[in-house]
């Protein structure tokens, strides 16, 4: 069923607590934890607790939870005192998506270039 935990999903296991992560924030619907391979001084992933494969699927099926994820990106930035930061949702292998559970990358603490690579 849409949104149900998936046995083979790394981020569902982080939500369940069976794989450890450095959790920085948690709400009823979301978890935020530090990326294991940080690309900036702040690199936090904000995920819905429910399993959806990407941001578009989440927004279509559970728009309130999509809004919760976005609100949490600001809360993460506030906790790390970031005035400027970047939020990235990779969708599909060509864009670099490697984990098929919706996640917002919150990146900050250094200068950012545009366009991204
Ligand atoms: P994607 O490439 O799908 O947009 O992002 C997946 C992110 O998950 C990558 O930045 C990667 O470093 C991170 N990641 C992969 N495995 C783990 C893990 O076990 N723990 C944590 N904290 N992050 C992970
Ligand atoms: Zn999942």
UniProtKB/TrEMBL annotation:
<protein>
    <submittedName>
        <fullName>Histidine triad nucleotide-binding protein</fullName>
    </submittedName>
</protein>
<dbReference type="InterPro" id="IPR036265">
    <property type="entry name" value="HIT-like_sf"/>
</dbReference>
<dbReference type="InterPro" id="IPR001310">
    <property type="entry name" value="Histidine_triad_HIT"/>
</dbReference>
<feature type="short sequence motif" description="Histidine triad motif">
    <location>
        <begin position="101"/>
        <end position="105"/>
    </location>
</feature>
<dbReference type="Pfam" id="PF01230">
    <property type="entry name" value="HIT"/>
</dbReference>
<feature type="domain" description="HIT">
    <location>
        <begin position="10"/>
        <end position="117"/>
    </location>
</feature>
<dbReference type="GO" id="GO:0003824">
    <property type="term" value="F:catalytic activity"/>
</dbReference>
<dbReference type="InterPro" id="IPR011146">
    <property type="entry name" value="HIT-like"/>
</dbReference>
<feature type="active site" description="Tele-AMP-histidine intermediate">
    <location>
        <position position="103"/>
    </location>
</feature>
